[in-house]
Fold these 2 entries.
Entry 1:
Amino acid sequence: MQLEDIKGLGPKTINLLRRLGINDYNDLITYYPYRYDVIKKTDVVNGEKVVIDGVLESLPTVTYLRNHKDKMSFKLNTGDHLFNVVIFNRGFLKSKLSVGTSITVIGKYEKNMIVASDIKFKLIGDETRIEPIYHVTTGINSSQLNNIIINAINDDIIDYVPDYLNKKYDFKDKLSCIKKIHKPSNMNLEDVKNKLKYEELFLFMLKMNYLKNKRGERGLERKVDINKVKDFINTLPFTLTPDQEKSVYEIYDDLISDKRMNRLLQGDVGSGKTIVSFIALYINYLSGYQGALMAPTEILAYQHYVNIKKSLPDLNVALLTGKLKVSEKKKIYKELEEGSIDIVIGTHALISDDVVYHNLGLVITDEQHRFGVSQRNSLRNKGVMPDVLYMSATPIPRTYAITLFGDMDISSIKTKPNGRKEIITYLKKDSEIKDVLTMMYEQIKLKHQIYVIAPLIEESDKIELENVIKLKDKMELAFGKVCKVGLMHGKLSASEKDEVMSRFKNNEIQILISTTVIEVGVDVPNATMMVVFDSYRFGLSALHQLRGRVGRNDLQSYFIMISDQEAKRLKVLVDTGDGFKISEADFKLRGSGDIFGVRQSGDMQFRIADLKNDFDLLLQAKEDSLDFLNNHVNEYKYIYKTVEKLDNLD
Ligand code: ADP
Ligand code: MG
């Protein structure tokens, strides 16, 4: 039903509703209150909240203040007392108030007077009134919206929870739940809320599972000689940690099975995900398919390229980034399509429309939260459905994994390679820069290297550049005599960046000043200290990622944040090195907006359910939705149709 078809709604109101995102009848009745005010007569106690009935003893007087504000005063007779009442910005009510008018006054009693926050013309008496409070906009208040909703509710309500599930959970029918949530007679709303939450989650999971089924889960069935994999692992300069080994075998099992792999490899920065991905690429190669490893930055792609060539010198590995010359790109495109390239490492360029793979069997995305869902899905291929492995250092709570991918398998690397020490983390004020320089000097004396992250300036590239250059000059002044200071920033060309980076790697540069272009993945084990100016400008997870650039061997490493602001937030990093806790804290501070770098789009916005708090309900809904799709679809065509209509995820 359209808003225009609802009796009593004029165009002006409809416009207001549209502003709240209410576009039809269903939106309107599922526009739930976010809280309730419970109003009940109180005693009048100094300094306390007061709710009291009375009769006006005087005509109100209104004085007008600055900025269109006003103040109204009157005397209220409550039968046994006479109170002075003031209320701000309700001057427009003056005409409705005369001597003898009965009202309820809600406010606070202080210094022999009531400062009211609201006036009601319906007396409270001995009743307990529950007022639903909605998110509203100027031009409409909660009680007006509530009236509109109550008037609109009719029998035309579709319950998306099938009868047998309503029975299973003892849920009430949807109509009575909708009525009750907008007009409760008491605050026992748990059952009602659960039903409405469940309905949302059930529909959501139905949609996820529907999409998953539709995409088809059959993957490549492969034959791989496990001994060759073991031989390769034995050539590595270290033994795999137990978690790395477990992850390798989980991936191996996925790859040889006919099920399509959809796996997340999760592990804190420095936990050693890269080598696991190389082994996966090798297994894929052994079974005769091409592999692709996609990295979020040029530098990281290049680093992987160099490393994998070292690990697997007999394979034909190519590097494909946006910075290549057209002729170079064309050559790689051709070889990818013909199949002479075994493994390609690259950036977004890997998923450009021009790239056609001969037989891509495995796609790995590193630090994958930086790629959008649609990008990950746009790999063009000849005939085969590649297996997919995502790697992430940002621990993704299972909740999001489940909701975004219906069902993604997860391998976790929980412990870092042996001998790693905790990275000692300090938070320093701008005025403590001398301490910082002293600590830097200690590291330089030990022949270690240091990253300095320059203040992040959002206003303009030009200012940013000036800033890092200034910082470099200062560092030159302090350390120029004892070591070499290098500079890395976004304005450098790819080859210039590579040049600086490789000089740092080769220890020709000892202090590297950088904007955050080094943010992800770079591996320089001799770097034992990172100093971050204006740390408050970064999210906690981003800082934790940065911190992961140091502490990459058994040397004691240090992470120093400099900031005069937001000490409380930054303290989280001083207190814990646990990436999971940090991302939880970040999540709480920032809200649930950003998952996998994909903004929560329409399909993930819930009206009443909450992925975090209603996780158990979500799991139930997930199970039920699978069973529904397998066994009950035909009895409930109307539900399935709705799910098909919701098919707009990518
Ligand atoms: P991340 O998980 O952040 O991608 P990397 O894969 O870059 O971590 O690994 C960090 C460092 O640890 C690298 O220098 C890598 O060679 C080294 N490394 C990985 N696995 C092991 C291991 N089992 N034992 C010792 N060092 C390892
Ligand atoms: Mg990595």
Entry 2:
Amino acid sequence: MLFTYRIPEGMTVRVGQRVSVPWQRIYRLGYVISLSETSPYQPTRKPKSAQGELFADSVDDLRVKAITAVDDELPYFSESIIRLLRWLADYYSVGFTLALRSALPAAVRSNGAKDREIYMVTPLNPLPPKLPPLTARQRHLYEEIVRIDGGRLTQVCEELSTTPQTLKKLAAAGYIRCERTVVARSPLKGRFIQSAVMPQLTAGQQRALDEILVADKPCLLFGVTGSGKTEVYMRAIAKTLEEGRDAIVLVPEISLTPQTVSRFAARFGKTVAVLHSALSDGERHDEWHRIRRGEARVVVGPRSAVFAPVQRLGLMIVDEEHDSGYKQDESPRYSARDVAVVRATMEKARCILGSATPSLESWRNAMELGKYCLVRMPERVGGSVLPTVTVLDMQQAAHDGRGVPIFSAPLIDAMRNRLERGEQIILFLNRRGYAPTYQCNHCQTAVMCEKCSAKMTYHVKDDTLRCHLCGAWMRPPTRCPSCGSPDFNRFGFGTQRVETALHAILPTARIIRMDADSTSRRHSHDELLAAFRAKEADILLGTQMIAKGLDFPNVTLVGILAADRSLDMTYDFRAAERTFQLIAQVSGRAGRGTLPGEVYVQTFQPDHPAIRLAAACDYEAFARETLQQRQDEEMPPFKKLACVTFIGSDAGQVASAAEAAAKRFSACRGLMVMPAMPAPLEKKETLWRWQILLRADSAKGIAAACDHVLPKQQRVTDKLRILVDIDAVFLA
Ligand code: ADP
Ligand code: ZN
Ligand code: ZN
């Protein structure tokens, strides 16, 4: 909520500062978002006042109270961030408070995570003279501590299999120091950081970098997989730091692996901050403040890092800019890529959007509208060629044998061949919009969640059917609940079944399976990849998780199973675009080293343009065809699209509210309104859902119509919740 406070005589208050203010009978912290000479409540007097943001629920006191104290000299928000958040609130049709919240990590907002003091072990080296002698074991321990250069007490104990008592004895003897110190909780600590030899840029990279450095608008860096985009990013960052300005690098959450992070850390050292959803609150708190204080000047993080409080933004990078993970999935539903472009423009910073398969929005901005510079890197570093792609028709394979096999014969042959040569294989199971379900072979009924209109998903590990929306679970029934037929079983296949089938076909192959189930422990993702890199396995089998950002020189074969699973358009009119991106990204994993790569794509729709053109590695033809189609259908990027969802427990009430709103939208000029309909996901966690799709030439037009038809204050009531999603990505 926004409140107005008076600035007392003698106090200096700046925009963005956190201040302590009286609120009802207590004191609370708030953020100053604007200063004004006048107060809205006492227009005749003219005290200096500050309008601020206080995270509170209600206000009824209109007397203007005074700010008690400035909590921290250094502002939490720069004026430009506040300007950005005002833009965001308007564009996405949300309240300013919500926009402000998204720019401040909960760990910072709650003030719960404080600076931390922990015990650190430091070896004395060289040793002072005349120390008491040590036993052989103590001497050995001391040498080990010197070797690892000490560290956190707990970590040293774990690494050297010793106890705090033993270390304290060493400390008492004067060989090491063991004391409490304030340390920043750094997510990079304890990570092995490779040496940072800077490679000579290839001609293609140099050309791209030069174009980026002189560009006067955002650059779309269209570089095939393996063209060395990251090196170009790093040179642009180095240049930015030299100019005394800071850089933000956005990467998709899923590719924010230690591998990515350590590449940046190796080059820029302590000046790198990582903002990561897997960080502890403490780590996030410390990293955020390190950025705010200017101690970290290169920020690497997922979408929320677009708001990182760097002081002088000079460069904004959005890697894999097409990734749908940049869309925030709760209100405000901003696209971090679009916010990045707006922020960079407002702060006069350079901006790079990088991808091998740009979103059609960005492609059109570059090719047709001239809003972006198009910078191309069509060649791979070291001249390795893009892999050859073979499309395997599974309909055909099914006719040859009994039912649809998991693996077609050519893929099995290719795998055998790689195993013989000691080369590695990646198998990718497309799981988007898909999960193994239980289905009746007699009446085709699938087991549904009782509370949600979603199919239950089968999990082998504990033999359960689970609803991924509400968490409900049950044992799989032995007979069809609808017709009683016993011919009732698992339908489709997941990674676990693929793994079992692989063992049967290739008994000697060493397999690493990577999916959400096998990587729930915090570091196990990295550990599995490290093992594969160290050639401890022949086959890496996984889901979307392994689709991007990984670089394995010894992988010469990539198999894509069920490539067409993501072609289902129910929830996503960009389904074809995603399928293309997926195949292109996954293929990019093959033949990254000196060995040539091969890709096999198994599909039931070999002639679908997304599959045909992905196999031909022809992004431009795909973009042309798909853009034409979108234009004919008046869909994005030619029109702006918004999805308004009505949610409530009373089905009739939800439907009539949606229908009434649709009628009022129809009266708005310049707005294309689809009839109100049940959402594809009609029921979720016992609540009914209806939606209206809106299209217009500008997002402004849509936001204005939404503000008019559904004023923000009326969107949440006891009975009904209305969500507005501008530039909607998933229409579920
Ligand atoms: P992209 O992100 O475009 O797919 P990467 O940035 O991952 O490509 O680069 C692919 C590989 O090429 C990486 O192993 C990287 O270390 C290497 N590389 C990049 N630039 C150079 C260069 N100029 N000289 C040598 N190796 C390079
Ligand atoms: Zn049945
Ligand atoms: Zn459910």
